Protein: Lipoprotein
Amino acid sequence: MGKAFGRPVRITAAALAAAGALAGCGGDRQVGTAALVGGDRITVTTLSQTVRDWRSQFAKDSVANQMRSNPNDPTGQIGADSGESDVRGALTLLVNFRVAARMARDQGVAVQESQTDAIVSLLDQRGGSGSFTLASGLPRERTRDVARFLATQQLVMRRFGADGNPQSPQTAQAGQNWNQLFRTTADRMHIKINPRYGTFDPARGDIGPVAYRLSSPETGVER
Structure:
Protein backbone atom coordinates (compact mmCIF):
# COMPACT_ATOMS: atom_id res chain seq x y z
CA MET A 1 0.00 0.00 0.00
CA GLY A 2 2.99 2.26 -0.07
CA LYS A 3 4.59 4.41 2.57
CA ALA A 4 1.39 5.13 4.43
CA PHE A 5 1.24 1.64 5.86
CA GLY A 6 4.36 -0.29 4.89
CA ARG A 7 4.62 -3.68 3.21
CA PRO A 8 5.46 -5.99 6.15
CA VAL A 9 1.84 -6.30 7.25
CA ARG A 10 -1.25 -7.10 5.25
CA ILE A 11 -4.80 -6.88 6.43
CA THR A 12 -5.17 -10.61 7.01
CA ALA A 13 -1.73 -11.12 8.54
CA ALA A 14 -1.63 -12.59 12.03
CA ALA A 15 -5.38 -13.03 11.99
CA LEU A 16 -7.15 -15.22 14.50
CA ALA A 17 -4.09 -16.79 16.05
CA ALA A 18 -6.13 -18.42 18.78
CA ALA A 19 -9.09 -19.38 16.60
CA GLY A 20 -9.90 -22.85 15.37
CA ALA A 21 -12.64 -25.29 14.59
CA LEU A 22 -14.56 -26.59 17.57
CA ALA A 23 -14.48 -30.34 17.31
CA GLY A 24 -16.03 -31.29 20.63
CA CYS A 25 -19.62 -32.10 21.41
CA GLY A 26 -21.97 -30.88 24.11
CA GLY A 27 -21.89 -27.54 25.88
CA ASP A 28 -23.91 -24.39 25.37
CA ARG A 29 -24.17 -24.17 21.61
CA GLN A 30 -25.24 -20.94 19.91
CA VAL A 31 -26.97 -21.95 16.69
CA GLY A 32 -26.64 -19.35 13.95
CA THR A 33 -23.28 -18.05 15.13
CA ALA A 34 -20.43 -17.83 12.63
CA ALA A 35 -17.84 -16.68 15.19
CA LEU A 36 -17.46 -15.52 18.76
CA VAL A 37 -14.82 -12.84 19.27
CA GLY A 38 -14.28 -11.83 22.86
CA GLY A 39 -17.96 -12.29 23.56
CA ASP A 40 -18.98 -10.42 20.39
CA ARG A 41 -21.14 -12.60 18.14
CA ILE A 42 -20.89 -12.58 14.35
CA THR A 43 -24.05 -14.25 13.09
CA VAL A 44 -24.39 -16.57 10.12
CA THR A 45 -27.04 -14.18 8.76
CA THR A 46 -24.65 -11.22 8.89
CA LEU A 47 -21.87 -13.19 7.24
CA SER A 48 -24.11 -14.56 4.50
CA GLN A 49 -25.56 -11.15 3.67
CA THR A 50 -22.08 -9.60 3.66
CA VAL A 51 -20.85 -12.15 1.13
CA ARG A 52 -23.96 -11.82 -1.05
CA ASP A 53 -23.59 -8.05 -1.15
CA TRP A 54 -19.90 -8.36 -1.93
CA ARG A 55 -20.43 -10.79 -4.82
CA SER A 56 -23.07 -8.57 -6.39
CA GLN A 57 -20.94 -5.42 -6.13
CA PHE A 58 -17.64 -7.05 -7.04
CA ALA A 59 -19.03 -8.47 -10.29
CA LYS A 60 -19.82 -4.92 -11.47
CA ASP A 61 -16.56 -3.24 -10.44
CA SER A 62 -13.82 -3.64 -13.04
CA VAL A 63 -11.27 -1.74 -10.93
CA ALA A 64 -11.78 -4.06 -7.97
CA ASN A 65 -11.41 -7.07 -10.26
CA GLN A 66 -8.15 -5.68 -11.62
CA MET A 67 -6.83 -4.98 -8.12
CA ARG A 68 -7.68 -8.47 -6.95
CA SER A 69 -6.11 -10.17 -9.97
CA ASN A 70 -2.86 -8.17 -9.93
CA PRO A 71 -0.24 -10.09 -7.90
CA ASN A 72 1.92 -6.95 -7.66
CA ASP A 73 -0.82 -4.99 -5.88
CA PRO A 74 -1.09 -5.45 -2.10
CA THR A 75 -4.87 -5.80 -2.41
CA GLY A 76 -4.24 -8.96 -4.40
CA GLN A 77 -3.02 -10.54 -1.19
CA ILE A 78 -6.17 -9.69 0.71
CA GLY A 79 -9.27 -11.81 1.08
CA ALA A 80 -9.94 -15.13 -0.60
CA ASP A 81 -10.18 -16.54 -4.10
CA SER A 82 -13.68 -17.80 -4.90
CA GLY A 83 -16.61 -19.89 -3.72
CA GLU A 84 -16.38 -21.04 -0.12
CA SER A 85 -13.08 -19.23 0.26
CA ASP A 86 -14.95 -15.95 -0.22
CA VAL A 87 -16.91 -16.72 2.94
CA ARG A 88 -13.78 -17.66 4.86
CA GLY A 89 -12.02 -14.50 3.70
CA ALA A 90 -14.92 -12.27 4.69
CA LEU A 91 -15.25 -13.90 8.09
CA THR A 92 -11.52 -13.56 8.70
CA LEU A 93 -11.72 -9.82 8.02
CA LEU A 94 -14.80 -9.33 10.21
CA VAL A 95 -12.94 -11.01 13.05
CA ASN A 96 -9.76 -9.04 12.34
CA PHE A 97 -11.60 -5.76 12.74
CA ARG A 98 -12.69 -6.74 16.24
CA VAL A 99 -9.24 -7.92 17.25
CA ALA A 100 -7.65 -4.70 15.99
CA ALA A 101 -10.19 -2.63 17.92
CA ARG A 102 -9.35 -4.50 21.13
CA MET A 103 -5.64 -4.15 20.46
CA ALA A 104 -6.04 -0.40 19.99
CA ARG A 105 -7.90 -0.09 23.30
CA ASP A 106 -5.27 -2.15 25.09
CA GLN A 107 -2.52 0.05 23.65
CA GLY A 108 -4.35 3.26 24.47
CA VAL A 109 -4.59 4.14 20.78
CA ALA A 110 -7.68 6.14 19.85
CA VAL A 111 -8.41 6.13 16.14
CA GLN A 112 -10.07 9.45 15.29
CA GLU A 113 -12.65 9.77 12.54
CA SER A 114 -10.34 12.25 10.84
CA GLN A 115 -7.63 9.57 10.67
CA THR A 116 -10.07 7.12 9.13
CA ASP A 117 -11.09 9.86 6.68
CA ALA A 118 -7.45 10.32 5.73
CA ILE A 119 -7.09 6.63 4.89
CA VAL A 120 -10.27 6.68 2.82
CA SER A 121 -8.93 9.72 0.96
CA LEU A 122 -5.62 8.01 0.28
CA LEU A 123 -7.36 4.90 -1.02
CA ASP A 124 -9.54 7.08 -3.24
CA GLN A 125 -6.34 8.41 -4.81
CA ARG A 126 -5.15 4.86 -5.48
CA GLY A 127 -8.05 3.45 -7.43
CA GLY A 128 -10.94 4.17 -5.09
CA SER A 129 -11.64 3.19 -1.50
CA GLY A 130 -14.80 1.32 -2.48
CA SER A 131 -12.98 -0.70 -5.10
CA PHE A 132 -10.17 -1.43 -2.65
CA THR A 133 -12.72 -2.73 -0.15
CA LEU A 134 -14.28 -4.94 -2.80
CA ALA A 135 -10.84 -6.24 -3.76
CA SER A 136 -10.33 -7.04 -0.08
CA GLY A 137 -13.39 -9.29 -0.11
CA LEU A 138 -16.00 -7.07 1.56
CA PRO A 139 -18.83 -4.92 0.16
CA ARG A 140 -18.49 -1.16 -0.22
CA GLU A 141 -20.41 -0.41 2.98
CA ARG A 142 -17.47 -1.89 4.90
CA THR A 143 -15.05 0.70 3.49
CA ARG A 144 -14.73 2.65 6.73
CA ASP A 145 -14.15 -0.60 8.65
CA VAL A 146 -11.25 -1.39 6.32
CA ALA A 147 -9.92 2.16 6.60
CA ARG A 148 -10.22 2.11 10.40
CA PHE A 149 -8.29 -1.17 10.51
CA LEU A 150 -5.50 0.34 8.40
CA ALA A 151 -5.47 3.51 10.49
CA THR A 152 -5.15 1.37 13.62
CA GLN A 153 -2.30 -0.55 12.04
CA GLN A 154 -0.57 2.68 11.09
CA LEU A 155 -0.87 4.23 14.57
CA VAL A 156 0.22 1.11 16.45
CA MET A 157 3.18 0.54 14.14
CA ARG A 158 4.28 4.13 14.71
CA ARG A 159 4.37 3.37 18.41
CA PHE A 160 6.63 0.47 17.57
CA GLY A 161 9.00 2.76 15.66
CA ALA A 162 7.78 2.56 12.06
CA ASP A 163 9.19 5.54 10.15
CA GLY A 164 6.90 5.49 7.11
CA ASN A 165 9.50 3.90 4.84
CA PRO A 166 8.28 0.39 3.94
CA GLN A 167 11.86 -0.73 3.21
CA SER A 168 13.42 0.42 6.47
CA PRO A 169 14.49 -1.97 9.26
CA GLN A 170 12.45 0.10 11.71
CA THR A 171 9.24 -0.44 9.77
CA ALA A 172 10.02 -4.13 9.27
CA GLN A 173 10.53 -4.58 13.01
CA ALA A 174 7.37 -2.62 13.75
CA GLY A 175 5.49 -4.96 11.40
CA GLN A 176 6.78 -7.99 13.27
CA ASN A 177 5.76 -6.42 16.56
CA TRP A 178 2.28 -5.70 15.19
CA ASN A 179 1.89 -9.31 14.07
CA GLN A 180 2.95 -10.66 17.43
CA LEU A 181 0.69 -8.30 19.35
CA PHE A 182 -2.21 -9.18 17.06
CA ARG A 183 -1.73 -12.88 17.79
CA THR A 184 -1.45 -12.27 21.52
CA THR A 185 -4.59 -10.12 21.53
CA ALA A 186 -6.56 -12.71 19.55
CA ASP A 187 -5.45 -15.40 21.98
CA ARG A 188 -6.79 -13.42 24.94
CA MET A 189 -10.12 -12.92 23.19
CA HIS A 190 -10.83 -16.69 23.06
CA ILE A 191 -12.01 -16.58 19.46
CA LYS A 192 -14.17 -19.47 18.32
CA ILE A 193 -15.08 -20.22 14.71
CA ASN A 194 -18.06 -22.27 13.58
CA PRO A 195 -16.53 -25.44 12.08
CA ARG A 196 -18.78 -25.24 9.03
CA TYR A 197 -16.56 -22.38 7.80
CA GLY A 198 -13.27 -24.20 8.16
CA THR A 199 -10.33 -24.57 10.48
CA PHE A 200 -7.67 -22.20 11.67
CA ASP A 201 -4.22 -22.57 10.14
CA PRO A 202 -1.61 -21.16 12.55
CA ALA A 203 1.04 -21.09 9.82
CA ARG A 204 -1.07 -18.89 7.53
CA GLY A 205 -2.94 -16.95 10.20
CA ASP A 206 -6.35 -17.34 8.58
CA ILE A 207 -9.28 -19.70 8.25
CA GLY A 208 -8.52 -22.71 6.07
CA PRO A 209 -10.89 -25.09 4.28
CA VAL A 210 -13.27 -27.31 6.21
CA ALA A 211 -11.62 -30.51 7.44
CA TYR A 212 -14.39 -33.05 6.95
CA ARG A 213 -14.64 -35.99 9.32
CA LEU A 214 -16.69 -39.19 9.23
CA SER A 215 -19.29 -37.59 11.47
CA SER A 216 -21.45 -34.69 10.31
CA PRO A 217 -19.94 -31.22 10.69
CA GLU A 218 -21.11 -29.19 13.65
CA THR A 219 -23.69 -26.49 12.93
CA GLY A 220 -23.16 -24.24 15.90
CA VAL A 221 -20.47 -22.62 17.97
CA GLU A 222 -19.76 -23.96 21.40
CA ARG A 223 -18.63 -21.74 24.19
In short: The helical segments are 44-58, 62-69, 84-107, 113-125, 129-136, 143-159, 169-188.
